[in-house]
Design brief:
356 residues, alpha/beta, four-stranded antiparallel β-sheet, 12 helices, 11 strands, 39% helix, 15% strand, globular
């Protein structure tokens, strides 16, 4: 996390440890922080400030908003989820389906881990209420054509519901351009605090009845869906995060550099390193799931940690419908690059992968 983000969190705790709505100075400061956070989030997502909703994390927001949307659903209605998804984008719908007698169906993948759009079209029907999908896989980095999926969902009369947690760390977002109805992301993925940020399309939010304590504020629109006191210090940190990204030129400037790092990695590894999913940088973000021939994934991760390189070994990566398809026996190693990584670090990573 950049120093200025941590400093903003501490400053908020020192200078704005209050709640909104009072006449004294610290309360006014809290109100200013929230307004600034809504405006910065709106600019980051490409929406209006009153369409922004904050929460403790993506998964909590997803459970909250899916329950709110589910008030309109009837037994037998269907939710489509992607087989590429993190379970934070699947479990809320499975639980809602259990409670309301709904049907959850998985959209298939092609062999290269890209979404099977023909299967999506075949599974859409007049009973489809939501098409929920991850814009980018947190496990293998594969990117989905969000504009295409949203358009297909709308043609069927369904909501387009995007998990952008992994995508938002690497690519600029424009919710209007892609046609999202709901989009949720997590600022900790792009050097911010642990927080959830959601977009809800105005015409969708206006028709929903929120789960809400009385008589909490119901305006601006997005605040209707914030179920308790916000973590104001984290919103202060979020504001500093967006300012930090702006200082680098935003994700539009960051994206090509990160992709260069990914290309450098792929060009340097030997055939002893298996990369699951797409083989090149086309159609992906610079996140890679790998295994090293003859070496268990936990041993690879330990070797890298011993040499000051942070990678993880895991079995499912919370993508429960994906990992069974990838063909590894137990675990795989996930690694990735972001704007603070250097070409020298990529080279050192490759050297240690070959050494192990």
């Amino acid at each position: 996390m950049p120093d200025e983000v941590g400093e903003a969190i501490a400053r908020t705790l020192r200078e704005a440890s209050a709640n909104m709505g009072a006449l004294y100075e610290t309360s006014k400061r809290v109100g200013e922080i929230v307004l600034e956070a809504e405006m910065r989030a709106a600019r980051f997502l490409g929406c209006q400030p009153h369409e922004v909703i904050f929460g403790p994390n993506m998964t909590s927001l997803n459970f909250t908003l899916s329950r709110t949307a589910g008030r309109e659903f009837a037994p037998g209605d269907e939710i489509l989820v992607s087989s590429l998804d993190h379970d934070g984008g699947v479990a809320p719908w499975l639980e809602l389906a259990h409670d309301r007698d709904l049907v959850v169906r998985h959209i298939e993948l092609r062999d290269d881990t890209t979404l099977d759009y023909d299967d999506l079209e075949a599974k859409l029907s007049d009973r489809t209420r939501v098409v929920a999908f991850a814009w980018a896989s947190n496990a293998v980095g594969t990117v989905v054509d969000a504009e295409r999926v949203c358009s297909l969902a709308h043609d069927a009369g369904a909501l387009a519901w995007i998990d952008a947690v992994h995508y938002a760390a690497h690519e600029p977002i424009d919710v209007v351009r892609v046609g999202a109805d709901v989009l949720i992301c997590s600022p900790y993925k792009f050097c911010g605090p642990h927080l959830g940020v959601a977009f809800g399309r105005e015409r969708v939010l206006e028709r929903w009845r929120p789960y809400k304590a009385r008589p909490a504020p119901t305006a601006p629109l997005g605040r209707r869906f914030e179920t308790g006191t916000l973590p104001y210090e984290l919103l202060g940190g979020f504001n500093a995060t967006i300012d930090y990204l702006d200082s680098l030129g935003g994700l539009e400037a960051i994206r090509p550099y990160e992709r260069e790092l990914g290309e450098r990695f792929l060009a340097a590894i030997s055939d002893r390193v298996t990369v699951y999913g797409l083989a090149g940088m086309e159609g992906r973000v610079p996140t890679f799931l790998i295994n090293v021939e003859g070496v268990p994934a936990p041993q690879v991760a330990q070797h890298m940690a011993d040499h000051g390189i942070g990678v993880w070994a895991h079995d499912s990566w919370y993508s429960l419908d994906l990992y069974r398809r990838l063909g590894y026996d137990d675990q795989a190693v996930r690694l990735g690059f972001i704007h603070y990584n250097t070409a020298d670090e990529v080279d050192r990573l490759v050297t240690e992968l070959e050494a192990v």
